[in-house]
Amino acid sequence: MEMQRQRVPSHEDVRPLRPRAASKRRARYAGSAVILVALGTGSAAAIVFRKDLVHTAIWIQILPKAEGGACYTILVTLWLLALLPTSLLEVAGGFIFGFWLGALCSTLGKMLGSFVSFGIGRRYKDWVRDKLLDDKSPRRGEPSYVAGLEFAMRTRPFSTCFALRLAYVPEAVQNYVPAVLDAPFAPFAGATLIGGAAYACLWAQLGSKLSSIGQIVQDGWTPEKITFLVVGFASLVAVLGLVHWNTKRVIRRFVAMQQDETSISAPALAHQHRVEDLLDASSGLV
């Protein structure tokens, strides 16, 4: 029986795909722009309609504590799923329920919203990666920043998710990025619990010190607001710097692993070709 070696396509057989690649790249840019606009619109809507949010909080305030806490938790969950920032709502929770109950309800609401967001992101992960993400650099074929971040999500999921959770970035980014980049759910849930509770306690503490609910939407500068802005900005710079350094480090490890795999596979491929040549020669003698 004759064994035929599979023909390897030559350079002439490969048609250039530059127009298609350029079109796909433009689609990625457009999709990324849509996401940024959606996040910006959500933040702007939270600012514009903050008085309506306060009226809703007043309605929750007149309910019994158990019912009010449940309604507030559901409101935080829906608020997060609508891509809206929850900080203002968490301050209102601290004012309505006090520090402990406000922090607890905020944490539960954010966890529910984050888990649902994670499920949505994991469900449409393949579509997002195909339409919006470019896993390889088109010029050098090296791993991109996204590939390095994905590598960090897989090898150090808790620390990476926790650093992202502490960063002062939209919560939609904190929830959907780990889902799309294949972070395991358990480390994501742990990071969400700890990081979400930390911010919930901070905002609830601020809300519990307010004398009236109208102070939540005041435009004036108070020492508490200035302190939160300074601490938030400092933590953002520090955490994003840590994430950037860690991601660059795992990118270097990722490149080294790929080079090692290439150096190992080359001799194995040559050995396979020699075996195929011997089989072809032996089949000709039969």
Estimate the strand proportion: under 5%
Question: What order do the SSEs take from the amino end to the carboxyl end, as H and E?
Answer: HHHHHHHHHHH
Radius of gyration: 26 Å
- How many angstroms does the end-to-end distance come to? 8 Å
Query: Number of DSSP strands?
Result: 0
Largest sheet: none
Mean pLDDT: 73
Helix content bin? over 70%
| SS field, number of helical segments | 11
Q: Could you name the ranges where pLDDT drops below 50 across 5 or more consecutive residues?
A: 1-6, 8-17, 137-143, 282-286
Q: What is the number of domains?
A: 1
> What class would the helix/strand composition place it in?
mainly alpha
Instruction: Tell me the overall shape.
Output: elongated
Transmembrane segments: 29-49, 70-89, 95-121, 185-206, 226-245
Keywords: Cell membrane, Membrane, Transmembrane, Transmembrane helix
InterPro entries: TMEM64, VTT_dom
Subcellular location: Cell membrane
Attribute tags:
286 residues; mainly alpha; 11 helices; disordered N terminus; disordered C terminus
Molecular structure report:
The protein is mainly α and 286 residues long. The chain has one domain (18-285). The protein is built from 11 helices and no strands.
